[in-house]
Amino acid sequence: MSNTKMLNDKKLERVAKLSYENALRLHRDAISLYKLKSFPSAFYLSVLSQEEIGKMHMSIRFLTLDWDSDVERREFFLKLDETLLYGLYKHSLKHSAFLRNSPLEKFSMHGWKMMEKISNGSLETKKQNSVYVGLNKTRGKINLNGAIRNPFSVTKGQASLQITKINDYLLVVGIGIRFENLAVENEYVEQRMKNRGMLRSLNKKWKRMGRKAAKLIRLYQQYFNEEVLAL
Asked: Given its phi and psi angles, is residue 140 left (phi above 0), alpha (psi -120 to 50 degrees) or beta?
C-alpha cells in the first residue's frame, strides 16, 4: 500500500495555510514591482502566486477525501492522491487547480484558452522567459538560428492582465465566502480571505478589475445589501 497518508493531516493543513499566505505575499510583491515598471518580474511573481493558490486547493482537496470508506475505495484514493500529492511540485497541475477552483474561469472561453496554454506548456514557457535569457528549442534541441528568448518581451499589458486575474480571484472568492455563497473548505483560509479589511486593501492596491469580477461583486453586494467594496 502507498505510504502517502504518512504525511499527516496537520502538516497538509499547514501546507494549505502557508500556500495561501505565500500567494498573497507574491501577489502584493507583483503589484509593487509593476508600479516600479518592472513588468517581467511582476508577471513572474504573479504566475507564482497563481501556482501557490493552486497548491492550496490541491492540499485542501487531499484533506477532504473520505478516508473512512470501504477498503477498495480507500485503495483507490491512496493511488489517486499520491499522484495529487506529487502534483504539488508540477507547475501545470497547480495552474490547472487554480482554474478549476476560480469562479471567474470555470466554463468561460478565457478559462478554456488558459487551460490550453497550460496543456501546451506556453504559460510555463512565458513564465520562464520573464526571468531568463536563452535560446529556443526545436524538438528538444537548441535552435542556434532562432530568436533569443528574453524577459524584455513581457509587456506592461501582459503583466497587468496576469495580476488582475489573481486580484479578481481573491476579491470574488473572498466576498463569496463572506456571503456564504462560496467555500474553500479550510477555516483558516476562509477567515483570512473574507476579512473586510483584507478585501478593501486588495481593492485599493490594485484598481484594475475585470468586467466579470466587477459584475459578480456588484450582484453580491446588491443581493446581500452590504457594500464590501466601493465599485
From this structure: left
